[in-house]
Automatic annotation (TrEMBL):
Protein species of origin: Thiocystis violascens (strain ATCC 17096 / DSM 198 / 6111) (Chromatium violascens)
Highest classification ranks of the organism: Bacteria, Pseudomonadati, Pseudomonadota, Gammaproteobacteria, Chromatiales
CDD domains: ABC_Carb_Solutes_like
Protein name: ABC-type spermidine/putrescine transport system, ATPase component
Keyword list, A-Z: ATP-binding, Cell inner membrane, Cell membrane, Ion transport, Iron, Iron transport, Membrane, Nucleotide-binding, Translocase, Transport
GO terms classed as biological process: quaternary ammonium group transport
Pfam families associated with the record: ABC_tran (PF00005)
UniProt-listed PANTHER family: PUTRESCINE TRANSPORT ATP-BINDING PROTEIN POTG, SPERMIDINE/PUTRESCINE IMPORT ATP-BINDING PROTEIN POTA
SMART domains: AAA
Limits of the ABC transporter domain: 5-226
Length: 226
């Protein structure tokens, strides 16, 4: 099977010198990669480049074999098969849980859409909350809705940018394990940015250590210790 995500010598710059430098990495199907490193080292910028919000200064990004970004070439985010989950959930406040989940698949025929929403509700354990609105949900429940919504269209890669950082440590670890379980069951490939070591070791098949815009290591948790 082809790799869902490949980065080849990727550099990204804002106004000045590159803040992401010459990063190459590959994620295998179903693998979860975690990017860690000090504040300002370029983690979010790299994620934004994969999503399609930042152009490349150098290199190439391939998603499920398709070249989505290179110098002078950039598919818009909505044309890339990526799903995104952020710290602040960004749920639609005026839509119920079902409405939030159905939004990204509204072009599917009605019956298929309904079946997909039902299976996602089961997947994240929210079948009883289908008719509720975001403000009626706890933070953990909202994040599960955000996850299910991102998974709905069947992305090649799911991008998570500090998805649990607004939660307390106990809930964070529990959610990290839950999310890993959900991703495993769906066979989803994902890349997660975090500051949190517990989260990293709870979730990652591969850990990427960034410093000053460069990828210093790309290895399993065990490999990082050895
Ligand atoms: N929109 C922007 N315009 C200009 N510079 C930016 C922009 N966004 C980020 N930067 C700079 O790029 C560098 C990398 O930032 P980035 O947010 O990717 O790091 P990070 O590792 O995700 O940090 P944090 O862990 O604090 O979120 C930093 O020096 C930052 O100041």
């Amino acid at each position: 099977m082809s790799n869902p995500l490949e980065l080849h010598h990727v550099s990204v710059a804002y106004d000045g010198p590159p803040v992401v430098r010459d990063i190459s990495l590959t994620l295998e199907p179903g693998a979860i990669g975690c990017l860690i490193g000090p504040s300002g080292c370029g983690k979010s910028t790299l994620l934004r480049a994969i999503a399609g919000f930042e152009p490349l200064r150098r290199g190439e990004i391939r998603l499920a074999e398709q070249r989505v970004a290179a110098v002078g070439h950039s598919l818009p985010p909505e044309s890339r098969r990526v799903g995104m989950v952020f710290q602040d959930f960004a749920l639609f406040p005026h839509l119920s849980v079902v409405g939030n989940l159905a939004f990204g698949i509204r072009r599917l025929p009605r019956r298929a859409r309904r079946a997909r929403v039902e299976s996602l509700l089961e997947l994240v354990g929210l079948a009883d909350a289908a008719a509720l609105y975001p403000h009626q949900l706890s933070g953990g429940m909202q994040q599960r809705v955000a996850l299910a919504r991102a998974l709905a269209p069947g992305p090649a890669v799911l991008l998570l940018d500090e998805p649990f950082s607004s939660m307390d440590a106990t809930l964070r670890e529990q959610l990290a394990r839950e999310v890993r379980e959900v991703l495993r069951r769906e066979g989803v490939t994902a890349i997660l940015v975090t500051h949190d070591q517990i989260e990293t070791f709870a979730m990652a098949d591969r850990i990427g250590v960034l410093a000053d815009g460069g990828l210093r290591q790309w290895d399993s948790a065990l490999g990082l210790y050895l």
